[in-house]
Amino acid sequence: MRIQVKRTGGFAGIERHAEVDTAGRLDAHEWHDLVEQAVAQGRGTPPIGVPDGFSYQITVDGRTVYCSDPRLTEPQRQLITRVMKEGA
To answer: What is the CA angle 39-43-83, rounded to 5?
Structure first.
């Protein structure tokens, strides 16, 4: 499973991208469970965010959902944090 996160917005407006491929990872099942929850609660179109807030585009194997601060669900927040931390 290929998970991509794109973060836009914020005070400086700097875009950030990260990606994780779960193929061959020992913790792949954890990623898959988290992705399932996060994507199920995402939107099909970009939501209207708050001034200087972050907006996120999560793409998993070609399917894209959108979410934004401050209305991230806990699974979305966890997934975004993990991908940004562990991804390339």
So the answer is: 40
Q: How many CB atoms lie within 10 A of CB 88?
A: 8
Residues 6 or more apart whose Cβ sits within 8 Å of residue 39: 58, 60, 63, 65
State pLDDT tens for residues 21-51.
Answer: 999 999 999 999 999 999 999 999 988 878 8
Distance CA 69, CA 29 (A): 27
How far apart CA 22 and CA 27 sit, in angstroms, is: 8
Helix (H, G, I), strand (E, B) or coil at 74: helix
Name the 3-class secondary structure at 15. Answer: coil
Cis upstream peptide for 70 (omega within 30°): yes
Answer for the pair 35, 79: CB distance below 8 angstroms, yes or no. yes
